Tyrosinase copper-binding domain-containing protein
Amino acid sequence: MMASLALSSLPTSTTTKKPFFSKTSSHVKPFHRFKVSCNAPANKNDKTVNNSDTPKLILPKTSHEMQNVDRRNLLLGLGGLYGAANLTTIPSAFGIPIAAPDNISDCVAATSNLRNSKDAIRGLACCPPVLSTNKPTDYVLPLNPVIRVRPAAQKATADYIAKYQQAIQAMKDLPEDHPHSWKQQGKIHCAYCNGGYNQEQSGYPNLQLQIHNSWLFFPFHRWYLYFYEKILGKLINDPTFALPYWNWDNPTGMVIPAMFEQNSKTNSLFDPLRDARHLPPSIFDVEYAGADTGATCIDQIAINLSSMYRQMVTNSTDTKRFFGGEFVAGNDPLASEFNVAGTIEAGVHTAAHRWVGNSRMANSEDMGNFYSAGYDPLFYVHHANVDRMWQIWKDIDKKAHKDPTSGDWLNASYVFYDENENLVRVYNRDCVDINRMGYDYERSAIPWIRSRPTAHAKGANVAAKSAGIVQKVEDIVFPLKLNKIVKVLVKRPATNRTKEEKEKANELLFLNGITFDAERFLKIDVFVNDVDDGVQTTAADSEFAGSFAQLPHNHGDKMFMKSGAAFGITELLEDIEAEGDESVVVTLVPRTGCDEVTIGEIKIQLVPIA
């Protein structure tokens, strides 16, 4: 059973406050949880830069209690490809963990690995400069560090913003070949995340090292931000300087922070390569699929909160679901079906990248592509909140939500230049405690914890009405092409399960063997027993099981990859009153980049709870 949470206490150790909401979210249509003025300033604090482009949302009074979140209802979700028998028991690969090369300057340029390489305006050479031929030394975290507190960007004061702009400008003023320069910091993401390195350090020189779509995603980016932050502090002689975080999981922070768009000619935080359609006061779409939905401000907030609940609660009950699939030495990131992104990576992380990146650019620069994302200051602030989600996830359920314990994860390592220009090797095992790393997050309420989706249509008997009309999964010839909307009738392993049975196993919908072109942005939405009544079903509705999404990986022209996804449906079936149905109708909606996508298997299984 999950402990009752004080919403405002996560992720910091700040004294517990009152919960944000008094009861579970209602459907998006009658959503009255926020009293919203989408054109009002974000903060009346006279030390904060006010800007009418950043909306203020006036939030309701809180209740004194929060309902317990029942552990049995926290379901496995997006990010799984394992059968019932081995979902929680797949062993780590034999051999040594993934390790970045000692010589990080020896990497492959992105020349042939970019879909529109001739239009790659940020340059195709991602390798860092050569400062020394010495091997990197193992990095040792400072003892008893002064804690740097990362502020929510929408709450930042004028003094803080000035200091932050000064630090970024100092980084941009460095010679381009300096390891701390703006360009070199941007290249780090290109090199590690665009196929620049191989697994030679681990004994597999012919296999690529890939950070994304695996359990390396969170720790790598934590270390990346750690040194980036310390470098900025050193440039302004302030060891207490901390990055802000883009608080997109809170209604007051669901717009691009105003500090990034003000005074474009003199503002070092400004990047011209952002989608002009999504500048303040536009509300971020957590489920962004490449096109704007036209949702109202209030409806979009409701959708976002329900989506965050699904990604952080319903679909993130165990380590594999949250972190993603195991990736160890000897695995091929292009061919392995275990290349599965965790819930946050495949969800809000990917959505923000595409929502901010300029869709009119050939490669959606900057944020919309791995090779160029690090050139936008907003990238680091976005990933600071992604990192915050890791900490919050652990705080939600300290007993069940654990970091990976396999030696293949703990001993995986990366190489960076630290703030003193020393080449250092860092390990996952040393980044699991943010206070030991010397930073924490300013407290911000997490209203999504109370935003469980609600049914679009209860007791609709969709499966029974679809018999003879919708094809049964056992009659489908796989692989199934997904170039159009697909509906399939899938048999369930059990009906009307008791409370005790639900405490022993979760019911999961699996999409296995998803094959796709890694060069394209991809998004598939998944629905269960969706009613075709002319009213659009959104992420605020229980029938929406979740999404499978991928940023362009740019491994080469038409480079196909395999992956998979799993979605928890126990809560979903409860909400729509379909627990007694022997089968359900699964609807797969290709949103973008799905012309050549195929699905290898669709099934529902009961997966024992460890």
